[in-house]
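Email to the structure team, subject: Gamma-glutamyltranspeptidase / glutathione hydrolase model.

Hi all, the expression group asked for a predicted structure before they design truncation constructs. Nothing fancy, just the tokens so they can compare against earlier work. One-line instruction: predict Gamma-glutamyltranspeptidase / glutathione hydrolase, return tokens.
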Amino acid sequence: MTYPRQPLFAPHAAVATSQPLAAAAGLAVLRRGGNAVDAALATAITLTVVQPPSNDIGGDLFAIVWDGQRLHGLNASGRSPAGLTRDLVLAATGGRGAEPTDALGGAQATGRAMPARGWLPVTVPGVPAGWRDLHDRFGSVPFADLFVDAVGYAEQGHPVSTGTAATWARAVAGHAEPTGTEYAEFGRIFAPRGRAPRAGERWRNPDAARTLRLIAQSRAEDFYRGRIASALADHAARTGGLLTADDLASHTSTWVDPVSVRYRGHEVWELPPNGQGLAALLALGILDGFEPGEPGEPARWTHRQIEAVKLGFADAHAHVADPDRTPVPVAALLAPGYLARRREAITEAAADPVAGEPERGGTVYLCTADDGGMMVSLIQSTYLAFGSHVVLPGYGFALQNRGLGFRLDAGHPNVVGPGKRPYHTIIPGFLTRQGAPVGPFGVMGGHMQPQGHVQLITATVDAGLDPQAALDAPRWYWHAGRALLVEEQLASGPGGAGIVADLRSRGHQLAVAPEPAVFGYGQAIWRRAEGGYVAGSESRVDGGVAGC
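Reply from the structure team: attached below.
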């Protein structure tokens, strides 16, 4: 399988995301005089309508903004309801928790887990406040102008794109099991013909258009303290949910300083916990001490990347939690001495990852860049497909199930509890070189995200590939233990048989995955030294890139 897409070269500005209509919405704002943040917000708002299995108004958002001088980070993730406790979850699930899910890709591969659907994993949605807070700080056009395309597509309808239709169909098929009253609205909105819309079919969601108008007109106040908030609290009270008006009214986003690790003369930036960007930084910090490998031994370099990713995840799963409730030793985990010790743990054979002990003291991604040098890396999600599958009647959006990221281990720093932000899988990335911006990047896809970041950065920095070629390069995916999936491209490409045989000889339990979705979907925009940008978007799905 090949993905023969070419990069986009843009003289002034660019937008890259996973759905072409959303990319066009961002470009339209740029053409009307908006900046990169305005374009990112118009794109993000439109994505909730044109790619609803992966993100919605009821989700969370994270962003990194290069303002022309420095980086800013926004954590717009929500907290758990005040009434959510470990004892309540255990009581609701018969004292055992739910069956383990692969949503955290090994974080909960054994033992008890949070339920994936229904009200228990619902946390306060951070997306509407995130849109407002980004606009308050950096926006240059009226907030309501950013909603025009999204409202139009929701009210008048739009033809569903091919990749979105496939994801949608899988999600609706998986929805057949839930029967509680909290799920009653799901079918009316997202399966109006008793099934998911097919590719090219026109789908409308006028209830979402109404919600978006209310958010635009009130600058999101209606969502947290007005009509939408009241409707959410009432629906939860009627159908067994814990979310209250006080939970919504107390929500705040948090501006944070991105954290980085050095990689071959570059700096790779991620947001600090509660996100899992730390896993990518740990892996790259470990790999920075290795040479990429001789031309005749690509399998060894791939093996080292896989083992570094395993160690990064082991530490992230052990330590990442809500930093407002439990300090996370970020500086200690990224210290050169600790990274060196973790590097020494990598041998020539596949290993089962074990967390170290430092010295203590379903998702959419988009990126934009404008003529003034501002660049944005933004990711938003309801998690898995349609999140909790709880849809607010009359308002047309699904609520996220981010509480699935909590643990049920009583002593774990990320144990479920009231008013906490859970471990988050969605992570925006940014690359600089000696302090100068290179550009925003991201790879969506749950547990794939940090390892997608690692593979994109190594392809860019070590192999010198442009954004599109780096995104199109064959990928691998580690889930848990020694199990490893590789893309068909990797196995069948030049030298692929030798790489596969070498990895298996090292103890990797390797299989070739025919389905590209497991390997994530990404975008990247790099600044060009002579001016303008070069951008790439995912070829494995309905990726869209636009420029001017």
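Confidence is low (pLDDT under 50) at residues 102-111. The chain has two domains: 8-60+74-79+115-255+363-370+381-405, 257-360+426-547. Ping us if the truncation boundaries need rechecking.
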